[in-house]
């Protein structure tokens, strides 16, 4: 049930996620173009660099889910204004990673930022945190907004991708903005350092599939606009990954042997870096036991 308590989770690749500053050094953001595509009702997909951004644009103004990187903030703002001259009212953060919240210092001066309490705590703990980037509305389980003619439900997960993730469901439009709790067509990311847990990641997906309408459209954290069938496939992949690693652990294999699992690596070779994902699953399972 949508009203039920859902605690947040998000899972990370075996390697450390790129910080916003590291990404800034590697990419020329001046070459990034912002693309906005209608999804359903008042909801649009915004693509630039970093995580996908979901946009609600209508008579009440604009609401966005995530903010990508800070150097792109003015470009994103210009695209939003072109879509709807009414002001930005709300920003919802799905999790703490810089490719999703990097633009907070810019947009936090224009709108109210909403996020889980854990996410705010992690942002506030940064040595270079500024007041404008911090959420001003926080929650433990979930909350709802009435915006642009529909209820916007924001649900917290148990620790999965991180320990502060949330998803956003636009009830009339039947669009779910998932953050990195679901990525389409690539290995997911379990950020153990930020409280992620691979089994929680799986439970979070299951909690959504229990109520999500079959015809809903899904904005993944990364990758193309998705269907419920895509989410089910991702769910089965995560479950398979856990089973593979648990079997190897029970067989007494080392982490290097687990990372090199030939059948798994071959099956998902088009995604690349399968060994890093298996290592992340191994570390998460061990963290769970400790």
List keywords for this structure.
disordered N terminus; 10 helices; 290 residues; 7-stranded mixed β-sheet; 21% strand; alpha/beta; Metallo-beta-lactamase, Chain A; 5-stranded mixed β-sheet; 12 strands; single chain
Write the layout of secondary structure elements.
Elements: H1 20-26, E1 35-40, E2 43-47, E3 53-58, E4 61-65, H2 73-83, E5 88-92, H3 98-101, H4 104-107, E6 112-116, H5 117-124, E7 137-139, E8 142-147, E9 150-156, E10 166-170, E11 175-179, H6 198-209, E12 217-220, H7 228-250, H8 255-259, H9 262-267, H10 274-289
Parallel strand pairs: 4-5, 5-6, 6-7, 11-12
Antiparallel strand pairs: 1-2, 2-3, 3-4, 8-9, 9-10, 10-11
3D architecture notes:
33% of the residues lie in helices and 21% in strands. The chain is α/β, with parallel strands linked by helices and 290 residues long. It has a single domain, classed as 4-Layer Sandwich (Metallo-beta-lactamase, Chain A). A 7-stranded mixed β-sheet has the order 1-2-3-4-5-6-7. It has a 5-stranded mixed β-sheet with strand order 8-9-10-11-12, with no helix packed on it. α6 (198-209) packs antiparallel against α7. The longest helix has 23 residues, at 228-250. The two termini are 32 Å apart. The model is unreliable at 1-23 (pLDDT under 50).
